[in-house]
Amino acid sequence: MDDRRPGLNPAVAEVRRNVRAHLPAEGTIIVGLSGGADSLALAAAVAFEAPGRGVAVVIDHGLQSGSAEVAAAAARAAEGLGLRARVARVEVPSVGGPEAAARSARYTALRGAAREEGADAVMVAHTLDDQAETVLLGLARGSGAGSLQGMSPTSDFDGIALIRPLLDVRRETTRAACVAEGLTPWDDPHNVDDRYTRVRVRRHILPVMEDELGPGIAEALARTATQLREDAAAFDEMIDETIEDIVEPAEAGIAVSVAALAANPAALRHRIIRHVVASEFHQSLTRTQTVAVARLVTHWSGQGAIDLPGCRARRVAGTIEFTRRE
User: How many domains does the chain have?
Assistant: First the structure.
């Protein structure tokens, strides 16, 4: 399909082109819709590129006065585009940060809707700007290359494909696409509320970086995420090739060869340690915990076992043994 035909707005064409590149060949597509410019532009593109296949799911978090009316208006907008629409009211727990709690509730609802609709894919409207903010927040937290990888265009969502087709599209483009298509997006007041860390990054930090360092900061951060995901994929392949030869069963756990760990560079050694704990005990290690286990390999002086989330690591003869911790 040629998006250069006369009369097609460039912003609309860009959004449609990115959606088309990520469309599953067949089946129902769940579209996460808030009513904001990003998700509304996504919904319009899905309606155009995959007619009859899209179901817009509007999540009402119930966190603001009038949220039910906003959700109903977003559903009507989706139906006007030719999508089926449904509103899902969710309860956001008070435990933990409000952003994380709302995100968890939202994804649970989207996953449930996908299963009810028999859909194999869920599309959400994260943009290049969202990606840049995610990378910058990960950098500020010092949480390692994993968080700096940002969001993947496609990831597994408990057996359902979670697709982010707009990660190469700027937020200003989605708003321009809505204007060109005569769509009126909802402006979430939370998006200008400086109580939220991401909002402060969006409204204050990134603009200052653009002013002081020059334009293109958001694109550079997004490129960094892509490069780190490529590096991580290469490391994962190396681990898959290596790990079967260096691990062996242990009572209530698993053991890894000290000699094999010592022979690998630190980056790969640390990834193997994290992989073993994640796959065997379904737990994540911090950088400090990972390095402490690695010291049983590289700086062994008779130290005792190390308590980790869900397990314990200790050096036994020529292995590092990971066993379940009650």
Answer: 2
